[in-house]
Structures are given as C-alpha cells and as structure tokens.
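Supplementary Text 2. Reproducibility record for the structural model of the 450-residue chain.

All settings were left at their defaults, and a single model was retained for analysis rather than an ensemble. We include the record here because the model underlies the residue-level annotations in Supplementary Table 4.
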Amino acid sequence: MKEPYEKPLIKKVQVGLSNKFGSVYGRHLRPEIDGVPISDLVSRFGSPLFVFSERRLREKYRQIYQMFSTRYPNVQFSWSYKTNYLDAICAILHQEGETAEVVSEFEYEKARRLGVPGSEIIFNGPYKPLSALKTAVQEGAIINIDHFDEIYDLEEIAEELGQPIKVGIRLNMDTGISPQWTRFGFNLESGQALDAAKRLVSGGKLILNGLHCHLGTFLLEPRAYAKAIEKMVDFAYELEDNFDLKIEYLDIGGGFPSRNRLKGIYLSPEVAVPPLEDFAEAICDTLLSKLKPNDFPKLILETGRAIVDEAGFLITTVHASKRLPDGTRSYVVDAGVNILFTAFWYNFKIELEEDISGPAEPCVIYGPLCMNIDVVAENVQLPPLPRGTRLIFSPVGAYNVTQWMQFIRYRPAVVLVGEDGQVDVIREAENLNDVVDRERLPERLILKKS
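Retained model, structure tokens:
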C-alpha cells in the first residue's frame, strides 16, 4: 500500500534542546502496565481504555499514611468519593483502613451500598437535602455544617428524633493562598465562624465537636496547611474555653497535588510539585507545637488526588493525522475530553507503546468529538505516528471517571490490574441500552416502520 502523498513543508523544528520552559524532549515508552502488555489489554478490552494499578494505589496510600502516622499519633484518612467513586477503587482504600468522605446523597448511598457503615462516613458539602441529613444522623455519620440554613435543618431533625446531634462546622480562612474558597463554610476572620458556634450552643440541640476545612485543590504550598492548622487549633481552644466544648477532631480536608502538571507550569512535576513529606511535616509539626500537653484530637485527611491519580492510565489509539493550515501536525485519537475531562487543566505525560523512528515535532492531539474544544494535548513533541499507534496518558486516576460524560460517544471500559497481574473489568464499556434504558417515548411519537 502506497503512503499517502503529503505536500512538502519547511518548518523549523527544535528537538533535544533546552529551552526557557526547562523541558528537554525525550521519547517516553510504556509497553506494559504492571507487567501486562498494552497490546493484550487493548485486544481484550478495546480502545480507549482506562487502566488502574492496584499495586500503585495501595503503595501510595501506605506511603502517605506512614508520612502522617509517624509524625502524629491520632490520624484517620477518609476517602474522597468525588475523586473516584468506582466500587473497586473505594473498596481497596476501605480495605486499607480509610473511612468514606462524601458530598452528596448519591455518594452516601454508594458508600453504604458498598458496605461502609454510616458511622464511618463523613458527610460534607453545601447541599444536603433534609431526608439525606436525617438518614446520616440516624446512622451516626459525621456531619460538617456548611451554612446557617443547615443548622436549622439539623435542629429540626434533632427535635423530631428527640436527641442532640454531634456536628462539626466547616471553616474558610486566609492562609496566604489565592483564590480563597470562601463559598464553603463559615469565615474565620470575619467572626462568622464564631457566630455559627454561638448559634449552635444557644440552640441547645446540636453539640459542636469538630472543625473542618478544605483550602482548595492541587495546592503547591505546604505552609498554607500549616497556617490552617494553626488557626484551627487556636479557634478550637477559643471554643472550648468560652463554651465548655470539646473539639474531638480537626479535619484538614484534601487538596494535595499529584505528580501531574498544571497547564501554565512549565517545570516538570519533579521540580514544581513539593514532596508529600513536606505537607505531612508542615501539618504535623504545627499541630504538635500548638496543642496543649496530652491533647491529641483526631487529625482527619480527605486526600484524594494524591493517592489515586498516579494509579490511573488511559490507553488511546491514533485514528488519523493531518496538517493544520499553519503547518502543525495534528492527530485524532479515540479518547476525548468527554472521558478525559481533566485535560482542560493538565498537561499529561504521554508515552508510546513502542519506539517509532523519525524526527519529533510539536503536535496537537484531538479527540473524536465533533466539537472544537476536544483537545486532549497541545504542543507535545512526537515523532510521525502511524495510524493505529497507541498512546498512554498518565496520571489520570483522579476525577476523570467521576467527571466524564456520555456525550457523542459511549464511555469505555475500566480495568484493574491486580497485584498478582490478574486483570479485572471494574466498569463495563457502555452500549446503547445504557443510554436509552431510562428514556420513554410517548406512543404518539413512535415512528411508523416503512
């Protein structure tokens, strides 16, 4: 078969040279994931395909848990369901000892269905329907209040059940980072958080026993967490001294970064992302320096991305290539932003299944959607890729399989490579029935068969 004709083009290409962004091109190859060949995975389960490594997931959790538990004696991790709520992923982390952190009745029900008792669930978020709050109260969940209206809802439930309810409140505060997530919880500096505590105490139906905060996402400044802990401990002792309360837990939330690369940051993750040990040290050292002797409230962490992101890979296949009018080489692959939603914010590591000869040049990778926004990678250095070439994107374990959408194309299968090399489907590829089963067509609109 003859190669298709391509008009000659003169375009300056720089390969292998350092530049002001600090990057040097080098081919990255990944012929297998945890010993399972990429070709075997695609032949069995198709492309595109999400692949998770059980070994990497367990190892990362254990590493992070050790970083904190060796520095502070009372630590509990609670798995952030919104980061990745696939049953298999959640089950692995619950086996490792994590409780569940949810932000909706859907996530709450998913955790309960999986077998997590209500007493091991933290219920956060700005929208908690009254019925969901009542269920959480009856099943003993930890509830962190987000706003004054939620106080009224919980007092109503307490009165109905005839019992006081233990609650925490979510705080927002200035820790020196921008933007501040002030839409969630009660502001500390303005006195709003103190007003909320006064309201709780005066009502007599709720017992304040915990403080919660969540500073943001993919935060690169450990000192922000140190400042948050400092302010939370000071506020806890203010509450205990003034209202005869006992703050039993401090929940610092999540937000730790993974080894991913934010768009706009040109340094490699190895340079730009602080080691997780820096976050553990900042939090625990500050906590121990601020607490009174023999006072060790439970430190809760809702770490999501930093635990699961690097355990996830996406295999995708080149379908077509073309030159854009400005001469840029572009490729169309079978995975788009409908399933790789975080492509809007991150420049992923892109690896080839096998080495391909030829000069590398800056390329753009488009997904399969008939939408101009379907760009999964820009300005990535690649050699000439034949049709059928497989690319592996990583890390993609966080948020993609919760934020993905059924748009234009079916969502693909997700598999888990076990520690023994066994490969299990943990979410089947979608088909037409999955999309239309909940649709209803009125009889008067049924098309007549010709």
